[in-house]
Every structure is written in C-alpha cells, then in structure tokens.
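Thiamine-phosphate synthase: structure tokens wanted.
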Amino acid sequence: MHGLYAITPTFEQCASDRWLMAQTRALLTGGVRYIQLRDKSCDQPRRLKVAKALRALCAEHEAHLLINDDWALAQASGAHGVHLGQGDGSPADARAALGKHALIGRTCHDSEQLAADAVAQGASYLAFGRFYPSRTKPHARPATPALLTRAKARFNPPLVAIGGVNLDNAEPLIRAGADALALCQGLYGSSEPESVARAFTLLFSVTHKQDTP
Ligand SMILES: Cc1ncc(COP(=O)(O)OP(=O)(O)O)c(N)n1
Ligand SMILES: Cc1ncsc1CCOP(=O)(O)O
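Answer:
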C-alpha cells in the first residue's frame, strides 16, 4: 500500500451524493489509490447505496475502497477492506470475516505499543496521527514525524499518516517514512481535486527520488 488515500466527508458534510461521486471520480482520475467511506450516520440503506457506488467507481480506476469502522458494511458492499479505530473491534475478527486478502487498517494514534498490537492482530497497515491540526477531527491525538521513522524501522506493514495534511506540509511525513497519506479536507475540500491529487502524486515521486541514494 502506498500513495494517496482519500477520506470522504460524513454525509452531513457532503453537499449531495452526486457531489460526493463527482469529487471522488476527480480524485481517482488524479491518482488517488484508496478511498475510505467515513460516515457516522445510522442511515444504513444510504450507507450501503453509497458504498456500492464508490466500490464501482474504484473498480473503474483500479483503486481500493475501505469502509470506516464497519466491517459488515465492507462485506455487504464488496469493499476491499475496513479501517478500524481502537474502539471498533479487533483486526483479527475483521480478518476472519473479510478474508486474507482484505485490507485492514488500524488507528495507532501516537503509540508504538498500539502498532505492535495491530501487527500481532494481522493489520494490513498502521495509521498514525494526527500530524497537523485537523478541522475534520479537532481532538485527535498529536503525533510527530519521528514516530514514523521509528515505526518504519520496527514494523513491516505500510504506514499511513493522517491529520491536517496538505501539499505544503506533506513532504516531512513522506521523508520520515509514511507510505501513504490520508486526507479528508485537503482533497474533498478542494475546488480542483484532480489537480491536487496529481500534485501529491508528483510530490511522492520527487521525494522518493531525492531520498534514493
Ligand atoms: C487512515 C485512517 N487513519 C485513522 C483514522 C481514524 O480512525 P478512528 O480512530 O476509527 O476514528 P474515526 O475515523 O472513526 O473518527 C481513519 N479514519 N483513517
Ligand atoms: C479521521 C482522522 N483521524 C485522525 S485525524 C483525522 C481527520 C483527517 O482529516 P483531515 O485530512 O481533514 O485532517
């Protein structure tokens, strides 16, 4: 897993489902590799409908759909995986339900211990952050790029950095060891989503090239 990872705004923050699909299509065209449906509503029929539509859109772009919190919705919609916070059940249970190829992400906040637990439970990637103040999740625990560097040396699964990331502050996270960057506001909040996604793709490749001896 590597590259750009887009997190949808919640349904109440979306202008409409049509807007969500158009914005997601533009992001995928610009090179986003992973989409996470992050909605906190209890509107199960709408959640399933949107998840299936996003799944179809991802298939057109050979991208992956993950569902936040809810592996049952991932299963029902045919998504590629699930992202689990610390209160969302165990990665091992999600793995048993979704199978060995599923992408199962785990929130590790600022903690190597949580990351070690996630690895032991079979997580596919480790998510750290927030790295910068986030309007999407203002009370998320802060983490520093040095944690990414330590985690890179210690753990095998890819590392995802999240929280307040934008084009101006992303480079230190890539240099510190982030394999993927997860953004909500920086991508879905843009009026030029395709161009922003392309600029991130370029940033990844330039930064990796500069770091290769
Ligand atoms: C890629 C990624 N990393 C972290 C989170 C945060 O997940 P969680 O701790 O479950 O918090 P909520 O997103 O549910 O508010 C994430 N969603 N995605
Ligand atoms: C879900 C989540 N978890 C930690 S920060 C965050 C929000 C990410 O959104 P943004 O990129 O808008 O800060």
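The longest helix spans residues 193-211. The chain is about 45% helix and 20% strand.

Cheers.
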